[in-house]
Structures are given as C-alpha cells and as structure tokens.
C-alpha cells in the first residue's frame, strides 16, 4: 500500500488506499488539512510540497493542470484533494501559507 510521510508534521505516516486521494487518506486517519473549497479542486489551499517520490503520483488532473498553467501550482506541488498514489513511498510537507493554527509543525 502506498505511503505518504508528512515531514513537517513530525514525520506523520499515512497509508493511501488504491484510488484514494491524499486528502481523503489524511482525513481518514484524523489529520486536519487545509482545504478551503471542500476538496473540489477549486483552490490551492490543500497543496502539498513533494520532497521525494513524485514518480509515485498519478497523472495531473485537469484542475492541477489549470493551476500550473496559471503559475499557482509549482512543479514540485500537488493538490491533495486531486492526486492519488500509484505505489511506493512519498515524502512531502505542508506549505507555510496553508498551515493550520491549531497544529504543531516541525522544521
């Protein structure tokens, strides 16, 4: 089963089911993650900075392509509400702009 590690959340490990978005996997584990549009791909607040394992992500979705074209989603970022993992292990971090005030982040 694919695994996501969130580096700046004390190396939180999240198992990601087949076809499950990263946001759904995080929520299923009880982890709060910013998603202002409700996980519909209409904003970029749920993005994750991918540090390792970009090759384990599924293809970009239409919303992710639009945000990349507009310069609002960098090459090393994905939208957790849109992306899935095809296997392997991935490491990412929460961007400073979308950190939630009630969570403790590590460096």
Automatic annotation (TrEMBL):
Species in which this protein is naturally found: Pontibacter ummariensis
Alphabetical list of InterPro entries matching this protein: 2Fe-2S_ferredoxin-like_sf (IPR036010), 2Fe-2S_ferredoxin-type (IPR001041), Adrenodoxin-like (IPR001055), Beta-grasp_dom_sf (IPR012675)
Record keyword Metal-binding present: yes
Keyword Iron: yes
GO biological processes: P450-containing electron transport chain
An MF annotation (GO) of this entry: metal ion binding
Cofactors (names): [2Fe-2S] cluster
Keywords per UniProt: 2Fe-2S, Iron, Iron-sulfur, Metal-binding
Residues covered by the 2Fe-2S ferredoxin-type domain: 2-98
Record-stated family: Belongs to the adrenodoxin/putidaredoxin family.
Protein name: Ferredoxin, 2Fe-2S
Chain ranges passing through the membrane: none
């Amino acid at each position: 089963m694919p695994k996501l590690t969130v580096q700046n959340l004390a190396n939180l490990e999240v198992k990601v089911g087949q076809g499950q978005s990263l946001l759904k996997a995080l929520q299923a584990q009880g982890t709060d993650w910013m998603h202002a549009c409700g996980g519909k791909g209409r904003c970029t607040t749920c993005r994750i900075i991918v540090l390792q394992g970009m090759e384990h992500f599924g293809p970009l979705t239409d919303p992710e392509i639009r945000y990349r074209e507009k310069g609002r989603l960098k090459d090393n970022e994905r939208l957790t509400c849109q992306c899935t993992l095809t296997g392997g292990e991935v490491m990412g971090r929460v961007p400073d702009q979308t950190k939630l005030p009630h969570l403790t982040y590590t460096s």
